[in-house]
Design brief:
The structure is a single chain. This protein has 4 domains: 2-104 and 131-211, no CATH class; 241-284 and 312-593 and 601-702, no CATH class; 706-783, no CATH class; 805-859. Helices cover 57% and strands 6% of the residues. The protein is built from 30 helices and 14 strands. The strands form 6 sheets. A 4-stranded antiparallel sheet has the order 2-3-1-6. A two-stranded antiparallel sheet has the order 4-5.
């Protein structure tokens, strides 16, 4: 008997219904009854009274029944009348007839995809219906079998949150119009949390037959890492979390699939470069002791740096050989650039298909642009007539809007200049410590250390340490700027949620673009470009600062750009995954460590989980778009970048799924028909990637000088790269160098990387004609490549329609059928009304019933 009582108690505590077991809990509010909280108590009384006036039903769990004996839980239920009223207001689409349009043709070779597929009941948790915006006056038009289950839990919690966000917490006789909405009550501590409930525990099914077990199915078939090779149950994700989260996971999965093809191409290119090393004469000449070992190069810094032999850069020349005689950079960059265009175009088609399947085709016009943010309503006291609705609505006057916009712009500009200052500081660090590294490695006391020093050059040591310092600065600036960006966006008071997200998106992406990519841009396009030559070096802060501008390796700065890219990109991904997975887990463990598991109620379990903020998806998109920039803007320097991104994203999909399912409270369902402003940002990054990769191949790599030498300056009759190294170097008489720059070893003839006339020539140390030929070839290459790639890009975009023809046909057919069914419904309704009127007039003595339906049945 005691065991049965315990089981009954556990079942009651783990329920998602009121105490009567009939009314479903649609939302939970929690609060603490503070001793000094009389003002908060008054707010709660007024707020809850206004919620009851709005038609919601409330039930309170006393703190004595809570696990910590401190927290009250207010359970909220929305009855049918409230749901029907607000479904009409929000124009929520509901089913009126089961769809007779087939899903599509069978996939050929379906047995190949069978291991990756999920059960049909998980992929399609509900049948396809024809839907129409809900109309309270046409209830009998819709397929309402059971009013309690007609609106799914995600729609119910969305409607309740709409009421909560607009409900006032003041008495009607007062004029405090700004005191409304659950957000303000959460901010001032009146309530501690507000959230809808998960339907069950994620590790076991719900024992109540009236309740779903969708969370359990999501965890079993989606969130576990062992399911990494399975397709995502997008329809179930959409049904449980709403369309906005569903669109995010659809985009992330599609992006990861496209990364697979880019990663394969990158691996093929890199492998081909490694295997073709033996055919690369340039690298062989650099590593050859008789050629590269006999060329003494000019010191890379003043005084402390010694002379060095060219074969000491054998390691970097091996990597640079991937872009050697076989034009591997060009061969790899074109397919990856085309894949970016195909990814964006095919995603538009996939997005259009989801819009149709999820009833989002006309969503933006109907809802997002008409729903005003509660914060806008409360903070904007001025009113004006809306030309569309012909109703008075709040607005922000133009002078105030301009002032707030200017303050916002100045703030963003200040933080961007702060990034530039930090990057300048890192550059100064590179210049300052290079001489120290050179001196340490020159004075290595043992042969073993000398061997390590020969592999880890001063340039590589400086680049690695500077990259780590830069990464730490990036993370610190991100931490502070996130809060600043939210503050200035709140200050601008955007009118709608869509406008708010777009404004914040642009600010954050602009900042992070500069923050993450500026160091890579410096290495790719500025380092080694303003060095000067021996006897006339360029210094960062003047000659007496002794901070001589950095030089690149003889083969260019590609290996340093790759080092910078790998450290920043990998570091960001590792830190992001740790932060996403470990922090929620530790916080939830800390909150629930003292819980009495036997009597741990459903609302208390969810209360101890992490809150999913309104900007939760924003950070997920931002992380992926920054990664997209790394693998597109600089793919010419590191073909394996897509492979790193693919490995990360396979983990990212499951980490996000696990986090949503197990570590976060159930978010309020929200609608979205696309990925918003991120679509335009991806297009801009794709266009910019064409320019950056063209400049990397022309100016950062050594591809163009090799081609010019091969076809214009090779002395022999056979077109080979033999002799290229000597041709690409110039000689300098070290005795002419100023005293401040003279190395401690003394003066000997040295070589340096440039195309200048030798000492004794009538145009001593000025650029040769070969330099100008190479420069002209670089500019011509950039112009031709950009135009070719852009033509191909826009041709592909034109060739692939954004909306598949099948989807267009289905949309037209569904609209036609909806109009037909509505017409038939109205005709039938009119016939009934005419019949009622005719019979009542013909037999008034018979028809005495007051109800219209009774009239018709009695008279007939």
């Amino acid at each position: 008997g005691s065991k049965d009582d315990t089981d009954r108690l556990q079942q009651n505590k783990d329920t998602v219904f009121f105490r009567d077991g009939v009314r479903r809990i649609d939302f939970i509010l929690s609060y603490l009854d503070d001793k000094d909280g009389e003002k908060k108590q008054e707010r709660r009384r007024e707020f809850e009274a206004n919620l009851r006036k709005a038609g919601l039903e409330l039930e309170t769990e006393d703190k004595s029944d809570s696990d910590d004996l401190k927290t009250y839980f207010l359970k909220i239920h929305a009855p049918w009348e409230v749901l029907a009223t607000y479904a009409d207001v929000l124009k929520i689409k509901v089913p009126f007839k089961e769809s007779d349009i087939p899903h599509g043709q069978d996939v050929p070779l379906e047995w190949l995809s069978r291991p990756f597929r999920l059960p049909e009941k998980v992929m399609r948790p509900q049948p396809d219906y024809f839907t129409s915006p809900f109309d309270k006056d046409k209830i009998d038009f819709f397929l309402i079998k059971n009013q309690d289950t007609f609106f799914p839990p995600s729609t119910r919690n969305r409607i309740v949150y709409y009421i909560l966000s607009r409900c006032p917490y003041y008495k009607e006789d007062r004029k405090e119009t700004d005191k409304k909405g659950i957000k303000r009550l959460l901010n001032n501590g009146t309530y501690t949390s507000a959230f809808p409930l998960h339907d069950c525990r994620y590790w076991e099914r719900n024992t109540n037959e009236q309740c779903e077990s969708e969370r359990y199915h999501l965890y079993k078939n989606w969130a576990r890492f062992l399911c990494f090779y399975k397709e995502q149950p997008l329809n179930l994700i959409r049904k449980y979390y709403g369309e906005k989260i569903g669109i995010y996971f659809a985009w992330l999965g599609f992006y990861t699939e496209m990364l697979f093809f880019a990663a394969v191409m990158g691996v093929i290119c890199f492998t081909y470069g490694v295997l073709s090393y033996d055919d690369n004469l340039t690298s062989k000449e650099i590593c050859d002791p008789s050629i590269g070992g006999s060329i003494v190069m000019c010191p890379l810094c003043d005084k402390k740096c010694s002379y060095w032999k060219l074969n000491s850069t054998c390691l970097s020349s091996w990597y640079i050989s991937c872009g050697g005689d076989r034009l591997l950079l060009l061969e790899c960059n074109d397919p990856v650039g085309s894949a970016v265009t195909l990814f964006l175009e095919f995603w538009k088609r996939r997005q259009a298909q989801l819009e149709y399947e999820w009833d989002l085709v006309d969503f933006e016009e109907e809802q997002q642009q008409l729903q005003i943010r509660p914060e806008f309503e409360t903070r904007c006291t001025d009113q004006r007539l809306n030309r569309i609705t012909q109703e008075m609505e709040p607005y922000l006057p133009l002078p105030k809007k301009c002032g707030r916009f200017c303050l916002s712009g100045v703030t963003v500009l200040f933080w961007m200049l702060l990034i530039v200052a930090c990057i300048t500081g890192v550059i100064v660090y590179r210049l300052a410590v290079y001489a120290a590294f050179a001196s340490i490695m020159k004075d290595s006391p043992t042969k073993k250390i000398h061997l390590v020093g020969s592999l880890i050059t001063p340039q590589l040591a400086t680049s690695v340490t500077a990259s780590f310092i830069n990464f730490v600065i990036i993370m610190i600036l991100n931490f502070f700027y996130e809060r600043v960006a939210i503050w200035i966006t709140d200050m601008e008071i955007p009118k709608t949620h869509l406008e708010y997200e777009n404004k914040l998106t642009m600010k954050m992406f602009l900042f992070q673009f500069v923050n993450y990519y500026s160091s890579c841009f410096y290495v790719a396009f500025f380092k080694g470009k303003f060095v000067g030559y021996p006897g006339n070096y360029t210094y960062m802060f003047g000659k007496y600062s002794r901070l001589r501008n950095e030089e690149c390796d003889p083969g260019g700065c590609l290996i340093e750009l790759t080092t910078q890219l790998v450290i920043v990109m990998t570091g960001k991904q590792v830190c992001g995954n740790i932060q996403e997975a470990l922090l929620p887990l530790l916080r939830n463990w800390w909150c629930s460590r003292k819980a009495r598991k036997n009597q741990y109620s459903r609302w208390e379990q969810d209360h101890d989980l992490q809150n999913f903020s309104q900007l939760g998806l924003f950070y997920e998109y931002l992380e992926m778009v920054i990664q997209f920039g790394f693998i597109t803007l600089f793919v010419a320097s590191f073909p394996l970048a897509p492979l790193l991104a693919l490995c990360n994203n396979i983990l990212e999909v499951r980490v996000d799924a696990w986090k949503f399912t197990t570590q976060f409270r159930r978010p309020v369902a929200a609608k979205a028909h696309n990925i918003g402003a991120w679509q335009e940002i991806l297009n801009v990054v794709a266009i910019l990637s064409v320019v950056t990769n063209a400049f990397i191949m022309a100016f950062t790599s050594d591809m163009i000088p090799r081609l010019v030498y091969l076809y214009a300056y090779h002395p022999g009759s056979e077109a080979t790269m033999s002799g290229y190294i000597n041709n690409s170097l110039s000689v300098y008489d070290i005795s002419q160098i100023p005293l401040l720059s003279t190395p401690e070893e003394g003066a000997i003839p040295v070589w340096y990387r440039d195309y200048r006339y030798p000492p004794g020539h009538q145009r001593e140390y000025s650029h040769t004609m070969q330099f100008w030929h190479i420069l002209a070839a670089k500019l011509a290459f950039i112009i031709i490549m950009e135009h070719v790639v852009f033509v191909v890009k826009f041709f592909v975009a034109w060739l692939i329609p954004d909306v598949p023809s099948e989807v267009k046909a289905r949309i037209k057919r569904e609209r036609y059928l909806i109009q037909e069914y509505l017409h038939n419904y109205e005709v039938e309704k009119l016939k009934i009304q005419l019949s009622q009127s005719f019979i009542i007039e013909a037999k008034p003595e018979v028809c005495t019933a007051t109800d219209k339906h009774d009239v018709l049945s009695e008279c007939l």
